[in-house]
Amino acid sequence: MPRKPNSPANLDLFDAPQTSGAISPDLPSIDNLEQMYDIYNAQYFGGRLPRVKITFSKRMLAAGCYFPQRLEIRISEKYHAIFPDEVYDTLKHEMIHVIHLKHNAEFKKMAKRIGASVRANEHPDLRRPPKYLYVCPHCHIEYPRTKRLRLASCGRCSKRGYDKRFKLILKKNLKQMETK
Q: Rounded to two decimals, what is the model's pTM?
């Protein structure tokens, strides 16, 4: 029996249309980003940067990331769907990481010189939900965290660094609760 052309069962999820490497029509194509990489390389870096692979990530929540072992700059589709005007700023930021891996003084000096941001914007849709809930044994303040803590004490009760009297106690493992 033939399916109706507009029925959901007729959608072929494995042959989704390609969008030139970008999920949003507001985002540039990979080819365009590679061209801008070459322009920025010549303009700001004297052509010294090596050729890198530029890709989009559907999973990443940060604006972008540079992988030195792969010579790859990855641009977040989720972040730039919210902040589409920042794609080229992110590209410049990640290009600086080719020379300076950390956000040290040299990185910040170069970012200022070429007009690149040091930090990306925040947005509630770009936060991971907490996996763990810790509590202070003294004041009972709760601390939701995405990563497991090893040695941490209550910020309100501990006056100078870590204090074992106020060591945070794991109250709930929210990650395990989700799977049940």
A: 0.64
